[in-house]
Amino acid sequence: MNWDDPAETPERLVGGAADREDQAVEAALRPKDLTEFIGQERVRQQLDLVLRAARQRGATADHVLLSGAPGLGKTTLSMIIAAEMGAPIRITSGPAIQHAGDLAAILSSLQEGEVLFLDEIHRMSRPAEEMLYMAMEDFRVDVIVGKGPGATAIPLELPPFTLVGATTRAGLLPPPLRDRFGFTAHMEFYAPAELERVIHRSAGLLDVEVAAEGAAEIAGRSRGTPRIANRLLRRVRDYAQVRADGVITREIAAQALEVYEVDGRGLDRLDLAVLRALLTLFGGGPVGLSTLAVAVGEERETVEEVAEPFLVREGLLARTPRGRVATPAAWAHLGLVAPQTPPQPQGFGAGGGTGAPGTGQTGLFGS
Question: Any idea where this protein resides (predicted)?
Answer without folding.
Answer: Cytoplasm
